[in-house]
Specification:
With 286 residues, this protein is α/β, with parallel strands linked by helices. 29% of the residues lie in helices and 27% in strands.
Length: 286
Amino acid sequence: MSSISDGQLNPESMAMASKHGANSSGDSSVGERNAGWWDDDAGSDLLLAIDSSSRTGSLAVLRGHYVLAEASWTATGPGGALHLGYAELLLQSHGYRVADLKAVAVAIGPGSFTGIRAGLSLGQGLSSALDVPLVGISTLEALAWQLGCTAKSGDFICAVVSAGRGLVHLGLSEVTGSGSFVHRPPSTVTADELCASVAAIPNACVIVGGEIEPDLARQIVAARPGLTVANPVTGQRRAAYVAMAGLALLRSRREAENPGPESVQPVYLNRENPGRATTSGWSGER
């Protein structure tokens, strides 16, 4: 597994992880089976996805693997200005009620403290009231699903979320199959450290996206010419990808393994407290 030291990726360990496609145990089996969403019988259950972890707010209603309705907006404050009424409108547009939901997925950060708490409170309240599963999805992992939706095995996705004060939250993920990822430990870094991390990735297609200002985009491209920096429209987060990651996580669990809504907690990163490595996807484990 690659390591992050002082907010930067170690190039040698990064190359080793890429060579072996390593998961947290060093097992190279992740992504060997050509699994995908088509292998999963999602049925027709309704799932509500919530992302309010930054200025971008988003809600999505999925039936199985298909989006019924989705709304995204940029708020003047945190994206946590969400109300149950928004979800009701999306459901009603297709003849459903809140009571018809069978699961809820929520983005748990990193991002805005206020926005994360607002979205999580809504998700926990719905889960408790309806007695349905709640899954928490890392904001960086959901963004990796979004940016990597057409990526091929071996590509790297660099997800970026603003952390304020000149810092960003960085999530680096390797695509290991169709809808499967190995997520490196997320960290909070400076722009220079972000560029160094991108430059350290071994020969591979690299896609960078998320909350990126033009000056940072120019700096990233200068550090590693030839990579792709997603434009703001492509990189603006959509709750449908929180739902996709949530579906994969739900299907990886047996019903008895679904913990209560109180077990879903926010993710707060800072310079002293980086995250941990995970995997996600139709053939991934957590």
